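Tokens for chain A. Residues wanted.
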């Protein structure tokens, strides 16, 4: 991907391969791979931090392993829920806009039909 640099008031703005919009990171192909990588890295950091708190001699008990797994799972769940909520809101906005445009085009085509009917008679 080509890098583009813009200069505005002595500030340089450099293009990047990804963009973060509504808390979701995507690329030019609208792929969410980078977003999933960021979220999985966050979950790995949580797991690493919690495992450092656990005893390192004798391994983890079943309850401790369960706690660790639940925290990582909860982190991933929150990220997926946030993604779903934001995406759903944005999609409903787009659907509303499309519906309004369809109504406007239907109204304009009806008025054109009335004009042609009048001209024919």
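Reply:
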């Amino acid at each position: 991907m080509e890098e583009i640099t813009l200069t505005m008031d002595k500030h340089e703005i450099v293009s990047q391969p990804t963009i973060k919009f509504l808390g979701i990171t995507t690329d030019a192909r609208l792929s969410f791979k980078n977003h999933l990588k960021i979220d999985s890295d966050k979950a790995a950091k949580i797991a690493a931090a919690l495992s450092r708190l656990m005893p390192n001699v004798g391994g983890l008990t079943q309850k401790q392993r369960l706690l660790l797994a639940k925290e990582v799972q909860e982190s991933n769940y929150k990220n997926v829920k946030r993604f779903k909520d934001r995406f759903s809101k944005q999609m409903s906005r787009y659907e509303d806009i499309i519906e309004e445009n369809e109504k406007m085009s239907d109204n304009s085509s009806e008025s054109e039909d009335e004009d042609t009917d009048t001209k024919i008679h």
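The beta strands are 5-8, 11-14, 18-21, 24-27. The chain has one domain: 5-111.
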